[in-house]
Amino acid sequence: MSDYLLDVKQINKRFGGLHAVRDVNLQVRRGEIVGILGPNGAGKTTLFNLLTGFIPPDEGTVNFQGRSIRGLKPHKIVNLGVARTFQLCRPFVGMSVIENVLVGSLGPRVSDVDLGARAMHLLSEVGLAEKADTPSELLSYGDLRRLEIARALATDPELLLLDEPFAGLGSAEIESISALIRKLHTEKNLTILLIEHKLREFMQLVSRVVALDFGEVIAEGVPAEIVSHPRVIEAYIGKQTPEALA
User: Fold this and answer.
1) Tens-place pLDDT, residues 25-84
2) Can you give the C-alpha Rg of the chain in angstroms?
3) Residue 24 located in a structural domain
4) How far apart are CA 123 and CA 119, in angstroms?
């Protein structure tokens, strides 16, 4: 049995001539918050799509709790305990906030309980209880981010993948969502894999960082090591030539 909750080895994905993910290895232990870092186009969301079944890998292995999930459909991966959010918030339009969460509660991982009460509890956890009956399309962007997290939590995940949860948010909302993520990690013992471009908040949340550029891992380590890593700096600000520094 693997020591890792998630164990990814030599995963690859090509789109025509573009090698979007190249020989990526990624291991996540239960209880960790691991960050995936990289500039735009580095392959981060493609990697999430590979892990959650939205696109199939060309090569490599993806094991969750010692079981291969490579090639499984997204709903089957969710039902094994892997949930995710998306960069773009897409609520079920025409449904209320609580109805959106109830949809996520319909899978086999959720036991025979009072689903309405459970959904209200989840909304309370993310700060949306007072908006339970609000049409989801009327939520602010910050509240839509909270709803995305609540819908993912409704599936009862053991591994939660968050794709840029701070995107489009102001500083106060970012601080609030950061606190929510910490709470989910500590109180629910959730293992979290996080993509984010807000570097200060990102580095404060994660215990370990995997940095990507052009689809391949260029560095891995604790945040203090990654922020000073030459290849990470080059990926973000470019290679500094003598002429550029003159």
Assistant:
1) 999 999 999 999 998 889 999 999 999 999 999 999 999 999 999 999 999 999 999 999
2) 18
3) yes
4) 6
Side chain identity, residue 7: D
For residue 228, the cross-strand partners are none
pLDDT attached to residue 149: 96
For residue 110, being part of any structural domain is answered with no
Place of tokens 């929510």: 180
Retrieve residue 201's tokens.
């908040």
How many domains are contained in the chain? 1
Asked if residue 240 is part of any domain, the answer here is yes
More confident residue, 200 or 47: 47
**Rounded to the nearest 5 degrees, what angle is found at the Cα of 17, between the Cα atoms of 43 and 44?**
5
* DSSP 8-state code for residue 91: -
CA distances from 136 to 10, 140, 150 (A): 40, 9, 12
Confirm whether 61 is domain-assigned: yes
At residue 205's C-alpha, the angle toward residues 202 and 206, to 5°, is 85
**pTM (predicted TM-score):** 0.91
Instruction: Fill in the DSSP letter of residue 135.
Output: B
Give me the CATH number covering residue 36: 3.40.50.300
Q: Tens digit of pLDDT for each residue in 112-136?
A: 778 999 999 999 999 999 999 999 9
